Fold:
Amino acid sequence: MFPLGKNYLKENLQRLEKKFGKKGIHFEIKENNISVKEEKEFLMNNLPGIKQLLQKKIKMQFNKDLLWHINQEGIMILKTKKIKLEPSNNIESLGKDLVKYINLIQDNILKDELTQFFKNHKEFFTKPAARYMHHNYKGGLLEHTIQTVKMAVALIDKMDQDIIIDKDLLIAGALLHDIGKVNCYEFDEDNIKLTQINYEQNHIINGIKMISQHFKTEKLDDLIHILASHHNIKEWGSPVEPRTNEAWIIHTLENLSSKIMG
Structure:
């Protein structure tokens, strides 16, 4: 049997059972495996959104007997971090954090533009950050954004003194790096669907368009570079690689948030 001491396996299975049990999908530990049971034959095929979510998030797959199970990589994920099916804090609390970080900006023009921007895009507060891989729930985009800016602000004082960091640019870039996702995802009951804008532009291009239309700050070109480079390389969706200190920090921290915090 799996050791259920200092790990999250048991808690995660309870979370999954609570979330998907009402849909007829159950999770059961058997010796050194975790089986995924369907109340009805082919139920998983009738719930393609849930099937893909479990395949992506916890590595569910078929075994040789054509039965669903969680593979060893998925078991390690379940042991080592809490599976996120909703934000750690409520949306109202995360929204207050957003205002707090905007107010740290010294440039009053940029601060006012950010304040008005988020007032104009209230959908930002409820959108997911992805379909399957990370922060894929209501408020996920907001939570991912707050995680990124929180780490960025904490990192500033830890950097060597001879490294120049524009704090205002770093905060603004962290808050805006994924803003295009507000137009790329929408909810269809429990499923997250891709929009036409996602197929035609993706969140990076759409985000650049959004901030170019709204912001007049002299830091706009630097903000555009942060959005354009935050996935680092072309294979991951970025047209350019990071070239500034702020862009490298945001790429690194948002990647950390997406890989292990959501």
